[in-house]
Amino acid sequence: MSASQTLAPQGAITDVAGIEVGHFTHTRRATGCTVVLARQGAVAGVDVRGAAPGTRETDLLAPTNLVDRVHAVMLSGGSAWGLDAAGGAMRWLEEQGIGLGVGPAVVPIVPAAVLFDLYLGDLSVRPDAAAGLAACTAASARAPEEGSVGAGAGALVGKIFGLDRAMKGGIGTVSVRAAGITVGAIVACNALGDVVDPDTGALVAGARKDDGRTLMDSRRALLAGQPPKRLIPGGNTTIGVVATDAVLTKSQAARLATVGHDGFARAINPAHTLLDGDTLFALGTGASGRAAEMMLLATMAAEAVALATVRAVRTARGMTVDGVRVPAAGEL
Q1: SS3 of residue 291 by DSSP
Q2: 20 contact partners, CB below 8 Å, separation of at least 6
Q3: pTM for the whole structure
Q4: Ramachandran sector of residue 276 (left: φ over 0; alpha: ψ -120 to 50; beta: rest)
Q5: DSSP-based helix, strand, coil % in the chain, nearest 5
């Protein structure tokens, strides 16, 4: 796949029937949140592979635990502060009468994951419950905006050799179809490592050389013995959702989240590090009425996640913070 092809329209996670997406982007700082709504509920799973995650309500998604459906997933900037955005989604869903019936109450189930974007601007500005509610209000089944919006607004990639060599990350989405099934993914990429085209192996974005315009190739630099810079633990993370209209059990949803991480590994190098909190949720709306064929779904999920990761950086916009230019892939 050529660079021009990867920029062409490739669908979105909202092509999966029953899925809506909404962004909230702060105007005072590069940060925000993105909600993936499933108003009718979706069978869900999760896999956390990074060693520095920031998450909420992931334990309940274990296949052995009771609750098997969620009503939204919140992806947010703001590090652990950004987990507050899920509370806003719960409030919005409750106002719509959407949630798990528990006695006299309706309790919306909203797992969440966050990324660290506190490097840029006033770190006291971060997504909160009001931001999460606003993202839900903005949600629709239309293809969502990509790039430097929502949870990807303050994302950076290629920080492994220092922030001064980093590039702009973002949020991207695609969908793939096969055998009457649709699988879509949305990914907010804030990786420590580089982003590569999974089809060609070509570098797309990442750590830059001293000239500021040439990519280093972090994998080769590390293997050649160049030491990484000391960075803030947890100051990275790629988070996302992969969804399908196939009928899934909770165990199958958990497996789909696991194999979806193959997409991260294809598009990010290195991935799943001690300093990343890489987390992927999987949703099954069942809207197609077709039973899951897990070998096919696994292939589709990894493909969608990898392509969404690449789109996250290809659609990002560069920015200047405190006089320092952070370029996007399209500027090099």
Answers
A1: strand
A2: 14, 36, 37, 38, 39, 139, 140, 141
A3: 0.94
A4: beta
A5: 25, 30, 45
Distance (Å) of CA 8 to CA 214, 240, 300, 319: 24, 21, 19, 23
Write down all domains in the chain, each with its CATH number in brackets: 3-331 (3.60.70.12)
Residue 270 amino acid letter: P
| Alpha-carbon span 22 to 307, nearest angstrom | 20
Is-cis flag, bond preceding 108, omega within 30?
no
Determine the distance from the C-alpha atom of residue 286 to the mean position of all C-alpha atoms in its chain, rounded to a whole number.
Answer: 22
Q: Which of 304, 282, 22 is nearest to 141 (CA)?
A: 22
In the chain (332 residues long), the average pLDDT of successive 10-residue segments reads 44 98 95 98 96 94 94 97 98 96 92 93 92 98 97 95 93 96 97 95 95 92 89 82 97 97 96 92 97 93 97 95 86 86
Query: CB–CB of 191/238 below 8 Å?
Result: yes
| AA identity, residue 140 | S
